[in-house]
Amino acid sequence: MILGAVFRGLGAHPAGWRHPGAHRDPLRDAAVLKRTARTAEAAKLDYLFFGEWLATGPDLEFRDPDLLARIDPVSSIAFLAGLTKRIGLIATVNTAFADLYTLARQTASIDRLSEGRAGLNVVTGADPRAAGNHGRDGRDGTEPNYDQASEIVRALRLLWDSWEDDAFVHDARSGRLIDPGKLHRTDAVGEHVRVTGPLNVARPVQGHLPIVHAGTSSRSRLLAAELADLSLVALPTVEQAVLFRAELQQQALAFGRERGHPLVVTPVLPVVAATTAEARAVYDELLRLVPLDDGSPLAQSPDFPANRSIRALSTVVGVPLGTPDLDDAVPLRVTRRFSDGGQRLLESVATRTGRRVEGERAITYRHLLASHAVPATAVVGSAREVADHLDGWFTDGAVDGFNVLSPFLGAQFEAFTGLVVPELQRRGLFRTEYEGRTLRDHLGLERPQNVHVVEAREVGRSA
Ligand SMILES: Cc1cc2nc3c(=O)[nH]c(=O)nc-3n(C[C@H](O)[C@H](O)[C@H](O)COP(=O)(O)O)c2cc1C
Question: Is the shortest distance between the CB of 270 and ligand 1 below 6 Å?
Answer without folding.
Answer: no
